[in-house]
């Protein structure tokens, strides 16, 4: 396994069917998929405890609600989120490569802001230029990610590690294993681009934990309350 940048080693837990690769191959963008394969054989260890300020899973950070947009201030990105699902081969589609500013959420997984590991994927580039997750590998721990949801709540995550893994040795259980707190994984392609070998040879993964989950405006005291005439 190749790890270019590692600042904290996330917990590793078994997970039954896991995404193993993601990203854009400019020469064949329409055919790109996220491959789900068998879990790696890795010893299970307890999930890491939330850092100070994080919302623990037993605190019910947020109920399930479809995410609609992701903002990454450090990249000046504000991208709509589309639903991604598996096909009959057990592969997960990627956002439309014709849309540079677009990201996708695995809708059969965890809702961002709820306990567990939510997954968001975007291209690093397209045939027409850089895409939504270009520069993901330049972020540093402490960078924030805001996920806007259909219920008008905003789930804010803080990145605690960014790593690059060779696709041939992708640590699925580390990336996708269940967690006790609410976490988020951002994925895109990285490393060397080799068209003869199928495109980008690595994946960049950002690991993040929930730090706040603002409630919808309609549930905030004093908000949307009719005033006496």
Describe this structure in words.
The chain has 229 residues and is mostly beta strands. The chain has 1 helix and 13 strands. Residues 1-7, 9-60 and 224-229 have low confidence and may be disordered.
Task: Detail the topology: elements first, then pairings.
Elements: E1 18-19, E2 33-37, E3 67-72, E4 77-84, E5 91-93, E6 103-106, E7 116-122, E8 125-126, E9 129-130, E10 144-149, E11 154-166, H1 172-176, E12 182-194, E13 199-214
Parallel strand pairs: 4-6, 7-12
Antiparallel strand pairs: 1-2, 2-5, 3-4, 3-10, 6-7, 8-9, 10-11, 11-13, 12-13
Calculate the mean pLDDT score and round it.
74
- How widely separated are the two ends? 67 Å
H-E order: EEEEEEEEEEEHEE
- Helix coverage percent of residues? under 10%
Name the CATH homologous superfamily. Answer: Sortase
CATH class: Mainly Beta
Basic shape: globular
Rg calc:
18 Å
Largest sheet: 8 strands, mixed, barrel
Q: Count structural domains.
A: 1
Strand content: 35-45%
Summary keywords:
single chain; mainly beta; Sortase, Chain: A; eight-stranded mixed beta barrel; three-stranded antiparallel beta sheet; 1 helix; about 0% helix
Describe what is shown at a glance.
The protein has 1 helix and 13 strands. The protein has one helix at 172-176, and strands at 18-19, 33-37, 67-72, 77-84, 91-93, 103-106, 116-122, 125-126, 129-130, 144-149, 154-166, 182-194, 199-214.
